[in-house]
Hints:
The protein folds into 3 domains: 3-240, 4-Layer Sandwich (Glutamine Phosphoribosylpyrophosphate, subunit 1, domain 1); 253-443, Glucose-6-phosphate isomerase like protein, domain 1 (Rossmann fold, 3-Layer(aba) Sandwich), CATH 3.40.50.10490; 449-598, Rossmann fold (3-Layer(aba) Sandwich), CATH 3.40.50.
Amino acid sequence: MCGIVGYIGKAAAPPILINGLRRLEYRGYDSAGLAIIEEGKIIVAKAPGKVQSLSNKTRDEWPQERFANISLGIAHTRWATHGPPTEVNAHPHLDQAGNIALVHNGIIENYRSLRSKLEAKGHHFLSETDTEVLSHLIGDRYKGDLFQAVCDALHLIEGTFGIAVIAASEPNKIIVARRGSPIVIGIGEGETIIASDASAILAHTQRVIYLDDNDIAIITADGIDIRDLHNIPVNREISELEFDTGAAEKAGFAHFMLKEIHEQPDSLRNAIRGRLDFNLGSSVLSGMGSSPRDLAEINRVVLIGCGTSLHSGLIGEYAFEDLADIHAEVQQAAEFRYRNPIISRSDLVIAISQSGETADTLAAVREANQKGAFVMGLCNVVGSTIARETGRGIYLHAGPEISVASTKAFTCQVAVLLMMALKMGRSRRYSRQEGMDFARAIEAIPALVAQVIEQDHHIAQIAELYYQNEHAFFIGRGPMYPVALEGALKLKEISYIHAEGYHAAELKHGPIALLQKGTPVIALANDIPGKDKTLGNVEECRARGARILGIITSGDHEAAAAMDDVIEIPACHPLVATVPTAVALQLFAYHIARLRGCEIDQPRNLAKSVTVE
Ligand code: M6R
């Protein structure tokens, strides 16, 4: 949520900051701003709306020649939490004296009481934000040493932060710090670039340092000095980013979402590569870090996540019970720590998160650790907080996912969960032959997905028939039930159509009352156990005038005859079929949103990673 970028080096900072913000815009896009230092003064530009508005503003108001020599600055793209997305609420925020500028991701929970205390000392606030309170607090503590003032202020803060701070009186440094909101430092040749996300750094360098919680660093053009909040130096390793700038660009596709949908055969190959053992009929997941004997001692699998990651967890639940004969359950990460869950040391808790930064999932990880469970992360972003705090787990290798609507991360999560269930199954009742067959079924996933993507044009034509509706229902049974939930989420978040996912049997317990002539029902009627019952539910919907789009198994004439329109999925194992079926629904949602003229990659009110509760 929100994006930070900062630069110090030899080049002109403003264009670098604007380009960095463009890379981060998917993290928040309701306003943006930047601050530089010119002739001993902080200069700020802010604009509500997208980074383009800020870019237009700086282009018109900041002539290039004037700022060619300014080689330090900080910038921010915002997802509003405290106060609406106006220019005055946009970051950076200044201190009372106008000497210090700050950009901030996260939430200062005790900002009200701090604000009252500062107001009593004569501070005057311009915005409604919690961030401005922190900038004033730093200013209040400033006695000529910015590092010390930031340290002192952060000791008084409750909540989360990733921050970058500059002071006009100390124009050769940026101070950055983190607690619960990521900060990455890119090490260039005579330049250093900091950001909340590595994608803003890639154009400059692939050598990065990830700050840990409660780290604070002094950044100069050619030096990085990292300490803890008690001023004790700490060592953080340098990592190499594994992707290049191409991975963070659209590569000729109209939207990142479409590009990421089309990338799935490759991302799935990357997620699966080297992880299947056809001889043992098992999977090789060293990140699970346990011997078969240890795995056999696990009594229960608890899957936690939010949104799309919760849906992949629901598919994992079917897989663990089916393959491994082990009790599995999914828990909504936001609820996990508040319901005081019963967790024991024989529980395996799998935290699923594309970004690895989702606040609710992270809080659930901490609770599960506290309760002594065996906790594992399933993350896409390497070095993310959840990946690091779980200490063990499996990376998805899906590559950077920029579109707010999660696509390739979801399918890779499912593929990895199937491999985990296979490994767990082989430490229990699953036979070698069954394991070998299932490993082959997983291996086929990228090709199955490619066959669905070949139907892109056909799915676009079907979308023409449905895009003018304002409501839609997705139904499925067994492992297709979570796919129905995911299909509905995809459609609603990018097209703003009111879409609901239901177990096919649930419809007649209430929601069927909403069906009218022409209401779209998307029925996941793949040829898997329960299909006949789903076809019965389809008849109930048809009898109420609904228009049925069936997702069916190729060549299933019986199912085709029950539908108004069909998308065919190649025949495969029922658990594996969840992946190509989800891809068909991703394309359906994409084309509907395109036909409705929606902002597909940056839907209203959303941001890529939700780092607030
Ligand atoms: O990064 P995470 O997987 O933890 O994110 C969880 C959800 O916020 C995310 O999946 C969200 O639901 C997506 N916008 C769905 O497309």
